[in-house]
Structure to design on (650 residues):
């Protein structure tokens, strides 16, 4: 880390500042369309808002694109996903092996060699690779604010963004590495301070202060400011008051979570520690999220939940009466490569190289059998663990005796999101005409089916199409140029905020708790039900509302379903002290036999099909102990000075 800091310090004014200059305030890419060796003085770089904003937007350019940072990227490291064997070297499988040191060797969004803050290509950005640079960039912006000629509004916008990004880059690293030195000044490249690591909670306190400073300085809507109106409709990626408050709330919730409250340990289910939160942190978190949600529901922000209305949910065909589509949270098609996220995305980075969606994000989710999906033989597959989190349409989990779940009809009457997200047995995978792949038109995902080979099919019995539609295949050509498919995963979206608010409230006072000092009047229970109402799923049952632990389990299950495959599951299991615990440390496949003739699916809805011998089988067990609650730092960084300690056990 410190060597990287020294390198950054020495190169910062040899090219970087020149890239920040521009003649007009436009998009992030426009700021970067300059000769890479242009050099300017500090006085020019910080002279006015236009130049200064370009300096700040280099930070935005550095935000990693989790899906497109590598040819076959990896970002789901919980119990939710497995790869087929060809991807054993990817981080998902290395986590399964307990090889957390591989985080900086496997080409994932957390770290890629040669990360380039100037590049606009998604394959040149990573979290660790840019974080120290961006924190220094933010600190330089803060320290030079008096050099700027501009209005108070312009200075506040620069200050607000700088405070936000200083905290954001710290917090994103803290989720994986724990407490860090909180760097709140420009460090001397030739005489680096020996900054000790802080505890997670102490570091989170510093983040929260900076997020609040940002919230106090930034507008709710950039387009409503005299400065922002100059780039009207092009301000979506710039942090605002809502972004800052949401991250303050998240930071405080994480600080109050069981891992940070109790420390890394094994046996948290048996001891009850998985339910022990720091109520002071969670109360502050609930109040912060409540402030946000009140503004959202009053219509004072640009954010709103998108609609879950489909004429054909299997093909993600939006209802003619719907103004927005749930699918467009994750991908867009035939819309001039428009960035996904819709009105729900609160935190995104740039995704200018949309062609990387086709090379190869759209080609790593479906079966490779018979060349159904082209290119690399790598497949992201949902585990049975994840799929069984999708409960019933009545809102009950499938293991509840009153849920109505029938193992002879396991796909019937499930949570509506199940049919949007999950490809299951009998699903019509190929829509178009084909002469040589007819045998694969309807998925055979039963045990021994033609899409179940471990090498190039699904070893779990499912595929996922939440992030990439099943029509991205050789027959339907969903990944061809003409479709304009663009994929992107937001770092935070509004549904997540509702669920974090619910969790923070529940940690303080159970299902009926409302934050004390906020005008927002929804309880934790009601916040969860907002998300369920959106998709047409039943409310949390009274028997779960009445039991604080069972209600927290329902919030956690709701997060698993609503945020499935979006990269949050590992950190959730981590902070809940569940990474080491059964069944979360075991990945399962779904095994069953068909009770229907293959012709059944040609005229019937696949969810109506009968099966026999429905069961789960373990694929692997993750041999984790308490050291696996944090990733290890690179060894060379921990050797720099004694105060920068390695994480325990590594």
């Amino acid at each position: 880390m410190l060597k990287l800091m020294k390198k950054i310090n020495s190169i910062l004014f040899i090219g970087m500042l020149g890239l920040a200059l521009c003649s007009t305030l436009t998009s992030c890419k426009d700021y970067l369309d300059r000769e890479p060796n242009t050099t300017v003085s500090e006085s020019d770089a910080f002279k006015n808002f236009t130049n200064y904003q370009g300096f700040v937007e280099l930070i935005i350019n550095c935000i990693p694109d989790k899906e497109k940072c590598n040819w076959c990227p990896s970002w789901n490291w919980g119990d939710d996903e497995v790869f087929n064997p060809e991807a054993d070297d990817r981080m998902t499988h290395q986590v399964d092996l307990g090889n957390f040191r591989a985080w900086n060797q496997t080409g994932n969004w957390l770290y890629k060699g040669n990360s380039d803050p100037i590049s606009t290509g998604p394959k040149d950005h990573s979290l660790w690779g840019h974080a120290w640079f961006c924190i220094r960039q933010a600190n330089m912006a803060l320290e030079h604010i008096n050099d700027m000629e501009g209005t108070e509004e312009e200075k506040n916008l620069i200050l607000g963004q700088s405070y936000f990004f200083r905290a954001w880059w710290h917090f994103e690293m803290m989720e994986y590495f724990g407490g860090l030195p909180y760097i709140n000044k420009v460090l001397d490249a030739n005489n680096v301070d020996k900054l000790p690591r802080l505890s997670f909670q102490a570091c989170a306190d510093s983040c929260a202060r900076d997020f609040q400073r940002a919230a106090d300085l930034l507008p709710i809507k950039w387009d409503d400011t005299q400065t922002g109106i100059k780039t009207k409709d092009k301000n979506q990626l710039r942090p605002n008051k809502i972004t800052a408050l949401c991250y303050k709330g998240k930071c405080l919730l994480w600080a109050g979570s069981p891992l940070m409250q109790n420390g890394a340990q094994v046996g948290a289910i048996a001891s009850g520690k998985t339910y022990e939160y720091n109520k002071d942190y969670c109360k502050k978190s609930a109040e912060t999220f409540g402030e946000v949600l009140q503004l959202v529901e009053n219509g004072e922000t640009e954010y709103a939940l998108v609609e879950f209305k489909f004429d054909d949910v299997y093909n993600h065909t939006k209802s003619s009466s719907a103004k927005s589509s749930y699918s467009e949270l994750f991908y867009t098609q035939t819309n001039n490569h428009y960035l996904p996220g819709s009105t729900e995305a609160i935190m995104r980075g740039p995704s200018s190289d949309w062609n990387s969606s086709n090379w190869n994000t759209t080609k790593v989710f479906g079966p490779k059998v018979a060349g159904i999906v082209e290119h690399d033989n790598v497949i992201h597959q949902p585990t049975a663990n994840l799929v069984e989190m999708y409960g019933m349409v009545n809102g009950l989990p499938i293991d509840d005796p009153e849920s109505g779940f029938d193992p002879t009809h396991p796909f019937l009457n499930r949570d509506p999101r199940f049919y949007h997200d999950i490809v299951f047995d009998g699903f019509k995978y190929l829509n178009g005409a084909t002469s040589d792949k007819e045998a694969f038109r309807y998925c055979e995902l039963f045990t021994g089916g033609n899409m179940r080979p471990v090498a190039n099919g699904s070893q779990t019995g499912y595929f996922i199409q939440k992030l990439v539609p099943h029509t991205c295949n050789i027959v339907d050509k969903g990944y061809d140029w003409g479709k304009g498919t663009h994929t992107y995963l937001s770092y935070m979206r509004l549904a997540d905020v509702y669920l974090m608010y619910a969790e923070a409230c529940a940690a303080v006072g159970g299902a009926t708790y409302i934050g004390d000092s906020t005008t927002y009047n929804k309880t934790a229970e009601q916040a969860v039900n907002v998300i369920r109402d959106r998709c047409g799923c039943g409310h949390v049952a009274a028997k779960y509302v009445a039991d604080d632990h069972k209600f927290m389990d329902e919030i956690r299950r709701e997060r698993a379903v609503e945020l499935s495959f979006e990269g949050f599951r590992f950190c959730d299991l981590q902070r809940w002290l569940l990474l080491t615990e059964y069944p979360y440390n075991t990945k399962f496949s779904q095994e069953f036999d068909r009770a229907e003739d293959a012709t059944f699916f040609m005229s019937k809805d696949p969810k109506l099909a009968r099966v026999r011998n429905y069961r789960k089988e373990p694929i692997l067990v993750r041999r984790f102990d308490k050291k696996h609650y944090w990733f290890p730092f690179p060894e060379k960084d921990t050797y720099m000075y004694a105060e920068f300690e390695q994480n325990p056990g590594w």
Observations:
- Residues 250 and 285 are 7 Å apart (CA to CA).
